Every structure is written in C-alpha cells, then in structure tokens.
C-alpha cells in the first residue's frame, strides 16, 4: 500500500454508504490499486447486505408509549383462550397443587379470598364466571421489575374494609433468598405482610397471599425486600 | 383461608401473565413500531402485536432463547401476520388500500420488510457486539444519521465513529459466513 495507503477504517463507512464525495473518491482510487482492500471491502459489503435483514425497529427497547390498553387486551385474549371450552385444560391441570386462580388477572383484578387448602385443586378451580364480576371492585394490579436481576412481580391489591389483601407473583428472585413483602402507605407507614424463602426454581416464582392493615386508598407501594432489608422489588401504586 | 407464601407451579395464570407482560415490556415498543410501519395504521398494528404476543404465549419455549433470537422470532411472526392479513384482504376486492403512504413511520427509507426471516442471526450478532460498536451502527445505519450527526449524538469525535463503523462491520463478518482470519488487521487503525 505504501504511499497510496488510505486509512483502512474508511472502508467501513464506505460500505455503509456514509462517506462524503471526496472521501469516497479517494477510497475508490485506492481500491483500483489495492487487492487487499478490495477483498476486505467485499466482506464488509456482504455484512452491510446482511444488516438490511434487520428492520430499524429492532433497536427499540421497552414497551410502547401508551401501550397499557394494548397489554390489557392481550392479557384478556390469553385469559379468554385459557378459560374457553378447555377451562380445566393443560395449564390449569399443571397448576394442580396450587389454587389455580383462573380469574386472577392483570387488569382484571384478583380472586383474593379464594385461597384454600392447596391439596384439592380440581374441586377448587374457580367455576366459570364472568371476569368482570369475579374480582373485588377496586382491585389494583401493580407491577415491578428489576432489569438488572430479571426479577419481577405482579401484585393484585384488593380492597377490604380499611385494609388490603395482596396476591403477588414474585419471579426471578435467587433461590434461597429470604424475602419479606411490605405494603407502604402514602404517609410512609410500612406494614410487613408476609415472608418466605424464594423458590429453588426462580423462573416458576413464588405466589404470595398476604394482608396488611393499610387502607386501600392509602397504598403507595408494595415492596419485596430481603429479610435483612435489601430492596428487591418496588411496585408503586 | 390460607395466607402466607406459597410456591407456584409453572403454568399458573399469574406466572403466564407476568411472562407475557415482561415480553411486552421488553419488546412491545419494537413490535408496535414495526407493525405500524408495515400496516400504516395504529389500530391494525395493535391487533398484529396482540396476535404476535398471543402466539408467543402459545410457544413459551421460544422465549427462553437468547434475546436476539426472541426479537427475531417476534418480528418474523408479526411480519407474517401482516402478510397473511394483507393477502386475506386482497382476496376481497371490495376493500381498498391496505397501506397508507405514511412515510413518517420508519426512521430510514430502506425497506427491510421482506428480509426479516433471517434476521435472527443478525440480531444475535448485533446483540453480541460491544455497546460502543452497536450504538454507532444503530445511529449511522438504522437511524440514517451522518457521521457528524452520529458523533454529536454519541458525544465522540467523527473519526471515532468512522473507526467504530469499521470494527463493528468486521466483528459482524460471521453473519455472512465470511470468517476470514484476522490477517488484514495490521493495516487497520
């Protein structure tokens, strides 16, 4: 390449088509004399062609702005599919041993108060019911996620007379973590509402039912911490 | 009544929903933007996203893959749904224009829509790039910015943008099966 040498890194920008005209010309005149650069450019151009297979939207991260209704509709669709003709279908059968909360759904509220001994799952499957009437009115669904650890929680906060019932699914907390769930009032008051040991299968998660003496309209957040006080998840109301 | 902590088996309703919600939270923006560009219509795009997530729920095994694969799968499914629906509409001659000429939908003019099928390999490779290389490619290639604009956006000198473009493309050579040894490296900066 000697005196005709160009800055080889120009080849990348050339392949991507972002060089200005002068730089493009200098690359092209060099390419005429340099088989090594021609070879390399062929490779880079092939990569550029492959990149076209990826739409620009592939780089958008996160949920769509204003997408709450869309998420709720999607979850309802899944719920309907699950709850249709095959109500006691595969998934609910798998959930035997748990009280299958076919009605405890994001956006729809929770079947809290339906907690029963876990060993008779079939008898305890919730009967078919209109989801709109199944949940205590005023139930709020809160969510929390920690992108750093992958832990996430969905929690239904159902109102009672001056206090709340919680139904939380906590997923992705490392096995063996000693967890405690708190309800935080808008005045900063905190009520511990239950504690447990994180499941050995973090992906399956732990379902927690709990109570707290904080008035429904004063719940500011539901927190999951380790029992020695490290914050794991915070779902804000 | 029994309160306190209980273990949940895989497949419980709430776990499923948390799963779909996490897919939505991570990839929903991408899906809706993509479907909006393909359909030119926000309402139609929302239907496509809903159907895509529904199919993801039916195939939870896919969601255990690496992020690039998951994203590639979701984009492919969304594209197929759009294609199928356009085809179904085309079979009904009374309906008009399936696509509005909404040019504001995509940040670049390039039409990628027909090539998504193989995008998983590319997305995985992009995912594996160093963040510095990846962000330069995103700015330059997918956002259609000039080197100077990208340099401003990223707060680095234009010369760095240029060399990162080069090294990013080199790092991606595996996606076209051109695994050349690093023989040419000594000429590079």
Automatic annotation (TrEMBL), chain A:
It is found in: Membrane. This is Putative zinc-finger domain-containing protein. The chain crosses the membrane at residues 92-112. GO terms for cellular component: membrane. The keyword Transmembrane helix applies. Keywords: Membrane, Transcription, Transcription regulation, Transmembrane, Transmembrane helix. It comes from the Bacteria. It is a single-pass membrane protein. The keyword Membrane applies. Residues 8-38 form the Putative zinc-finger domain. One of its GO terms (biological process) is regulation of translation. One of its GO terms (molecular function) is sigma factor antagonist activity. Coiled coil: none annotated. PANTHER family: ANTI-SIGMA-K FACTOR RSKA (PTHR37461).
């Amino acid at each position: 390449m000697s005196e005709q040498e160009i800055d080889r890194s120009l080849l990348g920008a050339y392949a991507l088509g972002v060089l200005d005209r002068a730089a493009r010309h200098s690359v092209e005149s060099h390419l005429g004399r340099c088989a090594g650069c021609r070879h390399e450019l062929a490779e880079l151009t092939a990569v550029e062609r492959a990149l076209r297979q990826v739409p620009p939207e592939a780089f958008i991260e996160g949920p769509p702005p204003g997408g709450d209704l869309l998420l709720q509709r999607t979850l309802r669709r899944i719920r309907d599919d699950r709850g249709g003709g095959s109500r006691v279908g595969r998934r609910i059968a798998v959930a035997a041993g748990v009280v299958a909360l076919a009605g405890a759904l994001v956006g729809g509220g929770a079947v809290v108060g339906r907690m029963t001994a876990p060993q008779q799952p079939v008898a305890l499957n919730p009967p078919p019911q209109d989801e709109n009437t199944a949940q205590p009115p005023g139930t709020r669904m809160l969510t929390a996620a920690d992108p750093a650890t992958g832990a996430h929680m969905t929690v239904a906060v159902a109102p009672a007379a001056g206090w709340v019932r919680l139904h939380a699914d906590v997923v992705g907390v490392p096995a063996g973590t000693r967890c405690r769930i708190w309800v935080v009032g808008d005045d900063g008051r905190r009520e511990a509402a239950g504690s447990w040991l994180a499941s050995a299968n973090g992906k399956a998660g732990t379902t927690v039912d709990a109570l707290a003496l904080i008035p429904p309209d004063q719940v500011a957040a539901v927190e999951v911490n380790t029992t020695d006080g490290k914050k794991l998840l915070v779902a804000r109301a | 009544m029994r309160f306190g902590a209980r273990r949940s088996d895989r497949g419980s309703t709430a776990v499923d929903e948390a799963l779909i919600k996490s897919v939505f939270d991570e990839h929903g923006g991408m899906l809706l933007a993509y479907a909006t560009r393909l359909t030119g219509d926000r309402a139609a795009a929302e239907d496509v996203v809903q159907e895509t997530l529904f199919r993801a729920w039916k195939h939870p095994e896919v969601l255990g893959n690496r992020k690039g694969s998951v994203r590639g799968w979701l984009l492919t499914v969304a594209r197929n749904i759009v294609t199928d629906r356009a085809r179904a509409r085309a079979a009904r001659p009374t309906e008009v224009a399936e696509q509005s000429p909404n040019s504001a939908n995509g940040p670049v003019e390039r039409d990628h829509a027909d090539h998504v099928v193989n995008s998983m390999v590319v997305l995985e490779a992009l995912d594996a790039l160093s963040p510095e290389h990846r962000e330069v490619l995103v700015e330059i290639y997918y956002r259609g910015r000039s080197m100077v604009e990208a340099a401003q956006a990223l707060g680095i000198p234009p010369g760095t943008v240029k060399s990162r473009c080069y090294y990013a493309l080199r790092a991606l050579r595996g996606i076209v099966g051109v695994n050349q040894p690093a023989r040419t490296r000594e000429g590079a900066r």
